[in-house]
């Protein structure tokens, strides 16, 4: 309903029964519903009206992005991402030959960047091996800044009401998971409640199933993303897995499956996966270094 926005949650006996929406010229309408779905983003009005509990993690990075034309991507066909530890740079091809470039930089550099956005932006991409050369294209937008996009996790369901997408879980935009999680969570909700809408008691059980599935599917990913959103550098397991992916095709494929959320954290960090990553990193070392490590390990066993 164009021109209307929800301003009240209708509750009967402690259970949401619909919404009231306000339109132009103070015209309002009430809409009854067995199930209310908040699909209204990280600042969800539905979640606020329903007093859904939430947790919030500070984002330790700010973002500047701009759009360019006639700028060829240096590698691949769709996008590139540079994990500069702790800063991040990103290039993504859009429609009609337009490319979006983004710089995600730790908060301690904010004043420096704000004083010369374009200069810092150009210098950052110039310093990255394999990044597009900005001199080859032309910028067709102003620089767009984003600060304070915190990581937000809410309770995703209660009797008569559910949240999907960013309303349920608004992750650090660095990883580009928002649209994917929106479609996935909407699908999970439909799978859980689609056959139960005519039976309130069954519907509430179905909403519990949705809440549990949402937590099971995305909880581990959200935990890692919220930690890295602080602006910290990579920890040891992260370095291990990323370096192995750059050195071994099997590890790279495993990382790709984790990045597109077809496997969870428990599979990604399984003992066999860790062992494979260690082997990929060790065998990538120069022969002299491997020999020294082997001798040191042998000496340690003899002393033991």
**Approximately how much beta-strand content do the residues carry?**
15-25%
What integer value in Å does the Rg equal? 24 Å
Distance between the termini: 75 Å
CATH homologous superfamily title of the largest domain? FAD/NAD(P)-binding domain
Helix-residue proportion: 40-55%
Notes on the structure:
Helix 6 packs across helix 7 (249-259) and helix 6 (236-247) packs across helix 9. With 304 residues, the protein is an alpha+beta fold. It has ten helices and 15 strands. The chain folds into three domains: 5-57 and 150-228, FAD/NAD(P)-binding domain (3-Layer(bba) Sandwich); 61-146; 236-303, no CATH class. The longest helix has 29 residues, at 200-228. The chain has helices at 45-49, 110-115, 117-126, 178-193, 200-228, 236-247, 249-259, 265-268, 271-284, 287-303, and strands spanning 5-12, 15-22, 28-32, 36-38, 54-57, 61-69, 79-83, 88-93, 98-106, 138-139, 144-146, 151-154, 157-158, 161-163, 169-170. The strands form four sheets. Strands 6, 7, 8, 9, 10 and 11 form a six-stranded antiparallel beta sheet that branches. A three-stranded antiparallel beta sheet has the order 1-2-3. The chain is globular, with a radius of gyration of 24 Å.
For the structure shown, list the relevant keywords.
304 residues, alpha+beta, FAD/NAD(P)-binding domain, 6-stranded antiparallel β-sheet, 10 helices
């Amino acid at each position: 309903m164009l021109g209307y926005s929800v301003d009240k949650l209708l509750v009967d006996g402690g259970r949401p029964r619909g919404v009231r929406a306000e339109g132009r010229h103070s015209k309002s309408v009430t809409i009854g519903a067995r199930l209310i779905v908040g699909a209204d983003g990280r600042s969800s009005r539905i979640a606020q009206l329903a007093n859904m509990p939430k947790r919030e993690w500070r984002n330790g990075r700010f973002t500047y992005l701009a759009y360019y034309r006639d700028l060829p991507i240096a590698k691949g066909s769709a996008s590139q991402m540079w994990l500069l530890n702790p800063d991040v740079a990103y290039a993504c091809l859009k429609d009609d030959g337009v490319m979006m470039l983004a710089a995600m930089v730790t908060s301690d550099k904010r004043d420096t960047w704000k004083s010369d956005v374009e200069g810092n932006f150009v210098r950052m991409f110039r310093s990255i091996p394999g990044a597009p050369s900005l001199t080859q294209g032309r910028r067709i937008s102003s620089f767009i800044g984003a600060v304070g996009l915190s990581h937000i996790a809410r309770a995703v369901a209660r009797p008569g009401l559910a949240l999907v997408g960013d309303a349920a879980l608004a992750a650090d935009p660095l990883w580009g998971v928002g649209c994917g999680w929106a479609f996935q969570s909407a699908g999970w909700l439909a799978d859980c409640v689609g056959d139960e809408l005519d039976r309130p008691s069954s519907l509430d059980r179905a909403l519990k199933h949705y809440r549990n599935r949402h937590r099971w599917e995305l909880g581990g990913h959200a935990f890692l993303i919220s930690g890295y959103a602080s602006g910290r550098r990579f920890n040891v397991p992260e370095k291990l897995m990323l370096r192995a992916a750059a050195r071994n095709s099997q590890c790279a494929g495993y990382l790709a499956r984790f990045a597109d959320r077809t496997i969870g954290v428990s599979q990604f960090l399984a003992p066999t996966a860790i062992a494979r990553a260690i082997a990929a990193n060790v065998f990538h070392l120069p022969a002299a270094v491997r020999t020294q490590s082997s001798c040191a390990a042998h000496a340690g066993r003899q002393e033991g």
